[in-house]
Amino acid sequence: MFQGLPKMNFGNQPTFSAKDTENVEEWLRITEKNLRLNRVDGQLVVEVASSYLRDKAERAYLQASHRLPNMNWEQFKETMIKSFRRRDQIEVNMTKFRGLSQTGDLKEYIDEFNSCLINLKEELPEAFIIEFFRNGLKPIIRAGVMASEPKTLEDAIEKATLLYYSGKETSAQRFDINRVENKSKQSIKCHYCHKLGHKIKECRKKFYDEKNRKETEMKHLKRGQEFSNKKTVTQYNKSRKPDNISSVEVEEVETSNIGTVDLDPEVHMRRTRNDLEVIKGEALLGINEIPTQVIFDTGAKRSVISERIARNYGIKSSNIKIKAVVADKETFSTYITERTRVIFKGHI
Prior knowledge:
The chain has 348 residues and is of the alpha+beta class. The protein has helices at 24-37, 45-50, 55-67, 73-84, 89-98, 106-120, 126-136, 139-148, 153-166, 171-187, 204-222, 265-272, 307-312, and strands at residues 245-250, 258-260, 278-285, 290-297, 304-305, 317-325, 331-337, 340-344. Helix 3 crosses helix 4. This is Retrotransposon Ty3-gypsy subclass.
């Protein structure tokens, strides 16, 4: 069938039988790489790739080829993924990704890490990716990477490579690095899970809590469920809502847990710009439903709005005083206001 083709180096090409232990996406990734390296003609890629299918996978391909006699590579991939991607594969990939660790050469660990990252099929914050990579390194390398405070995965890989292959680490240097690591961990505390060793924007618990919350809200929205809160006094005008906001509700005072504090908006915005914990949006406030630009601190126990906005738009405050701690560590006595809830559509 393949007479006349140049000799191809497929020595590391695995077969695929659709067993429970096999990952169809990983097999497709390796196969596509080998096809590209061997410069296989576009009209032959499906024939060459399908020659490595076995058992159930081969039968599924033959059945699909009757429906698509001129199947191209994209159709081939779609068929294989649709037929053999495990429903729990995302969870399996995430578990493997989080538990990955360096047991041998650094290059092997980097290759396996990148492979897991590709298979994950999920957008993770850069800080999370760096943390997963760093935590899987051997202790002496991990400490040096942590001390360098990399901003990207490429920075972390470069630092780890320099440390691993330099061969210049002395016992004294190892002690210094370990001391830096211990000091760094002791000085950093997450204000979400209250554990030491990472910041709130790197908190995995917060990331998954937010993800689960958003997925739950999306399921409710898709089912056409509407909010049944009897205390609602304002409903968002659908004709004026931005694309990323589903609805805004204001509840009565006794259910509130949101405080107001008078902050200089310029200072506050400068400190929070490009912060992963802050979402910018628009809400309708007051009885006149005036569109207002607001920010929501997703890492705080209670969100903060200015007293000026509360006065201008008629958001009532109760007689119950609370204390709110802001970025400069000063404490302000404030009053509870009506609770303002903003429901977002999709992922922010």
